[in-house]
Amino acid sequence: MRPDTPAENVDHTAEAARLERTAGLYPEDTEALLLRAAAHLELSGDRPAATALYDRLLSASDGLENPALIRALKASNLWEYDHEAEARAIIDGIRLTAPRDPAPWVIVAESLESHDELEAAEETFTEAARLLLTEGQEPPASTHALLYGRHRVRRMRGLPHDDWDTLADSLHSAPVSLDELHDPKRVWSLGSDNPAELEAEISRLRAELGAYREALSRPFPVAVLHWPVPELAELLSAYPALTSEYPSHETHLSTIESSLRELSSSGTGNLGIVTGTVPSYEAFAASEGSSPDDATLLPQYATTLAARGRAVAWPPQRGAECWCGAGEVYVECHGA
Q: Please, what's the b/e burial string for 107-126 (b: 16 or more CB within 10 A of its CB; e: otherwise)?
């Protein structure tokens, strides 16, 4: 499916089947591809089939990158087709294990919220915020959804602002404030006979819809290919013709950073870095009916990795380690 395909034109069942076939071709990306397939099955209305995919992933939990995320998605899906007891048990288990990734917390809290469990939803958002946010430090982008969700639930409960609500307000950049977006009385304005009130509500809804579209419809990143030291040494040893592309590892790293900065300055957004491996690159070259020493394959390989969900966003968040793997903070390494 092309990233710009309108949602109403997507055959979700066919897309799920295609992603399952792709997962068979790329075992290292099975988790990401099957999660996308399960999402399409949920959108198609085949929730039992989506649960089967989640169970398939969880049955091989040793190799999973984020088992808590899969359990959270499974719980949310189960609750939507009348398996409330099992969903609640999974949600309780996730809260007890306290994952360090914000995504499972957001999913289970929003599931509770969607079923009118507002107090439990707020408790879940708050537990996650206490666990994942550090006082005095800027919240990572991945935790913004926690703060926004907590703000929304507290607004629905009629609770006064606290420090985290104020922080959520400061992070929110849409033209309509969070207080307006999360106002529980907004729905009543849609029944108003006052044209000014209706126009104001339409403006708010457009802003909210735009934010959702940006989050959900963004295509995969424009990605630059990165080779770690041992992988680059193995690559050049096996395919010396690529030496002209990679004179040295230091030059390779500098080229990545300068290329991304140039793309950013030209107005290109949604940038990322994908890390290559020699076996994966050789398999890609074979699938293209070409030789790995063909340098024109390198950008195609990078794009393929990005489309399979392997890209890491660039630039890293403030305080995060550098993408190069040296273990230093980005702003003191390639971000200097």
A: bbbbbbbebebeebbbbbbb
Q: Collect all residues with Cβ–Cβ distance below 8 Å to 122 and sequence separation of at least 6.
A: 150, 153, 154, 157, 159
Distance CA 55, CA 51 (A): 6
- 106-123, pLDDT tens digit by residue? 999 999 999 999 999 999
Classify strands 222-226 and 271-275 as parallel, antiparallel or unpaired: parallel
How confident is the model over 57-91, as pLDDT tens digits? 999 866 788 999 999 999 999 999 989 999 999 99
| Count of other CB atoms within 10 angstroms of residue 279 | 11
Cα angle at 191 between 188 and 196, to 5 degrees?
95
- Is 309 in contact with 32 (CB distance < 8 Å)? yes
What per-residue confidence (pLDDT) applies to 172?
A: 85
Tell me which residue of 200, 159, 162 sits closest to 181, measured CA to CA: 200
Contacts 24+ apart (CB under 8 A), 55-59: 57/30, 57/31
Max Cα distance, the chain (Å): 74
Q: Which residues pair with 225 in a beta bridge?
A: 274
Rounded Cα–Cα distance for residues 333 and 331 (Å): 6
pTM of the model: 0.66
* Tokens, residue 163: 């420090």
* Burial of residue 250, with CB atoms counted within 10 A of its CB: 0-12 exposed, 13-18 middle, 19 or more buried: exposed
Can you give 179-205 as a three-state secondary structure string? HHHCCCCHHHHCCCCCHHHHHHHHHHH
Angle at 327 between CA 326 and CA 332, to 5 degrees: 85
Q: How confident is the model over 253-306, as pLDDT tens digits? A: 999 999 999 988 888 878 889 999 998 899 888 888 889 999 999 999 998 888
Q: Omega into 315 within 30° of 0, i.e. cis?
A: yes
Strand order, beta sheet including 271-275: 222-226, 271-275, 312-314
Q: Which among 85, 34, 25, 41 is positioned nearest to 58, based on CA atoms?
A: 34
In the prediction, which pLDDT does 5 show? 42
Beta partners for 312?
273
